[in-house]
Structures are given as C-alpha cells and as structure tokens.
Amino acid sequence: MDTATIWEWVGYLASVVVAISLMMANIKKLRWWNLVGAALFVAYGLAIDAIPVALVNFFIVLIDAYYLVKLYREPIVPPSAD
After folding, report:
1. Span 7-33, mean pLDDT?
2. pLDDT for the residue numbered 1
3. Which residues cross the membrane (predicted)?
4. For labelling, which of 2, 28, 56, 78 has a CA lying 20 to 30 Å from the CA of 63?
5. pLDDT tops 90 at residue 78
C-alpha cells in the first residue's frame, strides 16, 4: 500500500469519525469524537498539501478543546429537591 492510499484511508476514517460525532446526544461525547475527527482531517490535509482543509479543521480542534475544558470545569449542580 503506497503513502497516497494510506492518507486516503485517513481521510475516509476522519469522515466516518465526524459523522459518528454528529450522532451523539451527549455533548461531551460529541465534542471528543469531533475533536478526533478534526485532528485526523488536520493530518490528512497536511499530508495531501490541502492547507485550507488542515486550517479549518485545526480551528475546529481548538473550538472543541475550548468547549471540552469549559464543560469539564463546570460545577456539577445537584437537582433541587422541590
């Protein structure tokens, strides 16, 4: 298998991972799956010299990371006993 074919499969895998992320009801899971998919697209974009693909997905990685940090820092508020 040549290098071009390997990177093509990385692109397919990234697409599948992003599609899976969009099926998540849990926002934390959605962000994690989407971060992994976007990171794979960054690698794919760099490998095939598609800089716009790499840049937009790098931006998505940053957004997902920001919101994951925010989600994990939120205090857990127990439900009120009304």
Report:
1. 95
2. 67
3. 6-25, 32-63
4. 78
5. no
The token pair that represents 24 in the structure block: 């998540």
Whether 20 maps to a domain, the answer reads yes
Residue numbers of the domain that contains 60:
3-73
Q: For 11-62, what is the HEC assignment?
A: HHHHHHHHHHHCCCCCHHHHHHHHHHHHHHHHHHHHHCCCHHHHHHHHHHHH
* Rounded-to-integer distance, Cα 71 and Cα 65, Å: 10
58 located within any domain? yes
Number of domains, the chain: 1
Q: Which residues contact 23 (CB under 8 A, 6 or more apart)?
A: none
Q: What's the whole-model pTM score? A: 0.84
Residue 78 domain-assigned (yes or no): no
The identity of residue 11, as a single letter, is G
- Containing 80, the helix (H) or strand (E) segment is none
